[in-house]
Amino acid sequence: MTCPKCGAANADGVQFCTHCHATLLFKCPKCDHMQTHGGTCDACGLNMTDFWTKRLAIKRVEQENFERKQTEQELNNVQTAMTVPFSGPGGWAMFLLTAAIRRIGAWFESR
Ligand SMILES: [Zn+2]
Ligand SMILES: [Zn+2]
Fold first, then answer.
1. Distance from the CA of 9 to the center of ligand 2, in angstroms?
2. CB distance 15 to 21 below 8 Å
């Protein structure tokens, strides 16, 4: 079939133009019917444009929720990093303090 956008000849049944990647065949997401135009499905009457718009809107909300969760996780990590130095056994503040005390002790012993 000929591409309506660029006029390139494509094999029958090709979903996208091999030359400009325009959509030649639209597949209904509900009944899998293939047709040469978008909009309403000839087989089941589904409004494909509407379907994909809604699907995209859902995807966007999911993405926003995901990003919000990630930010919360990062905040939690920062909070943990701020409290661990003094509370956790591997805390860097405790390590530095211990090292400093040892140094001072060694200094006193050397006198
Ligand atoms: Zn084309
Ligand atoms: Zn359909």
1. 27
2. no
- The reported pTM is 0.52
Ordered per-residue pLDDT tens for the chain, 111 residues: 899 899 999 998 889 999 999 999 999 999 999 999 999 999 999 999 999 999 999 999 999 999 999 999 988 888 777 776 666 666 777 778 888 989 998 888 887
Ligand at minimal distance from the CA of 30 is: 2
Q: Which residues surround ligand 1, an ion (CB under 5 A)?
A: 3, 5-6, 8, 17, 19-20, 22
What is the distance between the alpha carbons of residues 86 and 105, in angstroms, rounded to a whole number? 22
Q: Within its chain, how far is the Cα of 81 from the centroid?
A: 26
Q: Could you tell me which of 37, 38, 18 has the C-alpha nearest to residue 10?
A: 18
Quote the tokens at residue 1.
């079939």
Name the closest ligand to CA 23.
1
Quick check: 26 and 36 in contact, CB under 8 A? yes
Q: Report the separation in Å between the CA atom of 74 and the middle of ligand 1, taken as the mean of its atom positions.
A: 46
